[in-house]
TrEMBL record:
Main subcellular location of this protein, as a coarse class: cytoplasm
Record's subunit section: Monomer. Binds directly to the core enzyme of the DNA-dependent RNA polymerase and to nascent RNA.
Name of the coding gene: nusA
CDD domains: KH-II_NusA_rpt1 (cd02134), KH-II_NusA_rpt2 (cd22529)
Domain S1 motif: 158-225
SUPFAM superfamilies named in the record: Nucleic acid-binding proteins, Prokaryotic type KH domain (KH-domain type II), Transcription factor NusA, N-terminal domain
GO biological process, one term: DNA-templated transcription termination
NCBIfam families for this protein: NusA
HAMAP family in UniProt: NusA_B (MF_00945_B)
Similarity comment: family membership: Belongs to the NusA family.
Superkingdom of origin: Bacteria
Protein name stated in the entry: Transcription termination/antitermination protein NusA
A single Gene Ontology CC term: cytosol
């Protein structure tokens, strides 16, 4: 029974030794011919030599020397113990007598080393030491695998890849991506890098911009007692991707418009409100190419594929120019602006734009997106003013509603302009009720879905209902707007204004305040 147990333990140890170096051949990184597997195998071979030598000195003799021959192609190795030839043997583990060695090899002499082997490691090492050898090789293989994948992913930083949804979490979405060398990599899309309209459940495959790679971090204590986080050189990696980065839009254009990749068209600037609106300025390096026409494509096919990928994000492509007046006028599209009405100061990077009353709301845009994107694209701080063609029709005591841009914000200003309230007196004449209605906007019908499949109902959808809480909120905002505008007029001017309008109800409302 004891003999069988010893034999079984010997076979188990031999299997462990074989698997120790067998990790090299089992690793995926060596199955790819494009990988520099020879250099990697030699690194592991050097590690194997060091760890075997260390364990021999620990288990067999502290002063033992050995020769280890490794064949990375076959995945096997041989170990020889070096025994010094002496006249009289004091330490049998590492010495051999001259008389004994002459029976084996007559060419050896005193002071030489005799290679004994190849030895069976299970006869010289403990089970624990053999396990240490195996684990050391396994760890080295894992580290090299991570290094190979890390270097390959590092080449993808700044590029667009297609990933498949693997897991949806509360604050991030995990995608999987197979590299060119067939390594499976997880891509992390944080919630902050997603567009509002992105729906990973309905779109399991998405294009993603590889933003950066983060290594696993460990806390390190400094000499002064402080603690900082530093990346581990061999730690796990996290590939962070994005769909809101401006460079993502640049790469989509580069993919769809070959002239950009060839350098015939240059993208000079990009400004985005992800998922809503974007502005792209382009310039041609060839007189024969129309940069805007080439970027949009025949019948808009090129731009449509980009818009579809970005969930119907509205993209304006404009011509770039060095003239700030013309550039600003183009950037404020769809507002129709004469460049001569744009006054730009190159030193302060500020611009004043005179606009026709009916073009102001287009220049500002919904939520102020249009003017904000124009400022980001051009690098100028833009102020817009109402330009009245017939000065005789203008009331000198009235105030442009644009003057309240800082107090109201671009979003509310756009809603007031959209309702036709372009001056302070028009706001006061309208009254709080109409201001509230302008802020709420027209009642939008709700789209009723059938079985959650995204198909519209065949019957007429019901109108969106505004809750009492929403009504109270917008009522308060309307009252604040009315009060702010009213403060710009004296009591006598305000009474004259109301008397002219014949609106006694508004007077009573303001008196109650």
């Amino acid at each position: 029974m004891a003999r069988k147990q010893i034999k079984a333990e010997g076979q188990d140890r031999r299997a462990q030794i074989a698997s120790a170096f067998g990790e090299i051949e089992q690793s995926k990184i060596f199955l790819d011919k494009r990988t520099e597997s020879a250099a990697v195998k030699m690194d592991i071979a050097d590690l194997l030599k060091d760890i075997i030598q260390k364990q021999l000195r620990k288990d067999y003799d502290p002063e033992v020397e050995s020769n280890i021959f490794i064949n990375p192609e076959r995945g096997d190795f041989e170990v020889y113990i070096l025994r010094k030839i002496v006249q009289e043997v004091d330490i049998p583990a590492i010495e051999i007598s001259l008389d004994e060695v002459r029976k084996i090899d007559e060419s050896l002499d005193l002071g030489d080393f005799y290679e004994e082997g190849p030895i069976r490691l299970e006869d010289y090492l403990t089970r624990k030491s053999i396990q240490i050898i195996k684990q050391s090789v396994q760890k080295k293989v894992r580290d090299l695998e991570r290094l190979v994948v890390y270097e390959e992913c590092l080449e993808k930083v700044g590029e667009v890849v297609a990933g498949e949804v693997y897991q949806i979490r509360s604050n991030e979405v995990i995608f999987t991506y197979n590299t060119s060398k067939d390594h499976r990599v997880e891509l992390v899309l944080p919630k902050s890098e997603m567009m509002k309209k992105d729906n990973p459940r309905r779109t399991p495959r998405m294009k993603l911009y590889v933003k950066r790679i983060e290594r696993e971090k460990a806390k390190v204590r400094l000499d002064d007692g402080g603690v900082v986080e530093k990346e581990k050189p061999d730690g796990g990696m996290k590939v962070i991707v994005s769909r809101v980065d401006d460079r993502f839009l640049y790469k989509l254009f580069e993919h769809e418009v070959p002239e950009i990749l060839d350098g015939l068209i240059v993208i000079k600037g990009i400004a985005r409100v992800p998922g809503e609106r974007a502005k792209v300025s382009v310039e041609s390096t060839s007189a024969r190419i129309d940069p805007v026409g080439a970027s949009v494509g025949y019948r808009g096919k090129r731009i449509q594929s980009i818009v579809k990928e970005l969930n119907n994000e509205n993209i304006d492509v404009i011509y770039y120019t060095d003239e700030p007046q013309i550039y600003i006028a183009r950037a404020l599209q769809p507002a129709k602006i004469d460049p001569l009405t744009v006054h730009a100061d190159i030193k302060t990077r500020k611009a004043r734009v005179m606009l026709k009353p009916d073009q102001i709301k287009y220049a500002i845009g919904k939520n102020g997106n249009n003017i904000h994107l124009a400022e980001k694209l051009t690098g100028y701080e833009i102020d817009v003013y109402r330009d009245v063609i017939d000065k005789s029709l203008e009331d000198p005591t009235d105030i442009d509603i644009i003057e309240f841009r800082e107090e109201f914000g671009d979003d509310m200003l756009y809603q007031l302009l959209d309702a036709g309230f372009d001056t302070a007196k028009k706001v006061l004449k309208a009254g709080i009720e109409e201001i509230e209605q302008a802020l709420l906007g027209p009642a939008k019908p709700e789209e009723v879905l059938i079985f959650g499949k995204g198909r519209k109902a065949p019957f007429k959808p019901r109108e969106r209902k505004v809750t009492d809480e929403e009504k109270r909120y917008w009522r308060k905002i309307a009252e604040n707007i009315y009060r702010t505008v009213k403060e710009q007029f004296s009591d006598s001017d305000f009474r004259d204004l109301i008397d002219d309008a014949g609106d006694r109800e508004t007077v009573s409302l303001s008196a109650d305040e």
